[in-house]
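Intended use. Records such as the Type III pantothenate kinase entry shown here are meant for training and evaluating sequence-to-structure methods. They are not intended to support clinical decisions.
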Amino acid sequence: MKLYVDIGNSAIKWATEDDLQVDILHQAESSNLPAAIEHAWLKLKKPEAVYIASVRQQDIDAKLLSWIERHWQIIPLFAETRQLEHGVTNGYKKPGQLGVDRWLALIAARALSKLPQIVVDCGSATTIDAMDGEGRHIGGIILPGLRVFAHCLRQNTDIPHYETGEIGDCFATDTASGILTGAIVAQCATVEKLYQTLQAREMGDVICVVTGGDAELLARHLEVSHRVVHDLVLNGLRLQSGQSERTV
């Protein structure tokens, strides 16, 4: 058994090879590692290998590395951003600056389709990357995630804090809903703008793939054709680790 792990700013996600075949994804908060995963991981059969993609600071990675070595006596392998891999060419001037999660999402998206794509990852940050039909990463943008968007607004203004908000249409009738709706509308408008820009550039069909913890929430309000793939980064990690591509 191989174990694939995606450590984000707010969540850690993991899946085995068998899990990925049937779209099963496990997750916990990444703010308290390794305690957050210990109960679940102690129930796992000892893996023969562990592959990790992480955007956290090195001390967080070191704590998880120590836990894995102590309990399973194996050394995990960490994913890395590359210049060229699985038919995708990195578009950054300095390829290593592209987040490893974004890179893995791109190579997994390329395995799903050879059409031009907009790849959206909705987490603590929302990243939107464009890739042409030849697998060339054109570039992308980084936005505050939906929750960070709302938190920053509250932190930097005197707007009162309200616990819940609802999204109806674009015109909210209470403060909490206004903040949440503003975050959703802003992000959807950005995705839709980049989708249309790529469509005009490629002069043909474009696919939009959405992943991340807030993927379902954002996707419900997108007005362009899209597909939610929850395990996109983990499948990219599986590809980089040398496993065969999966047809989904």
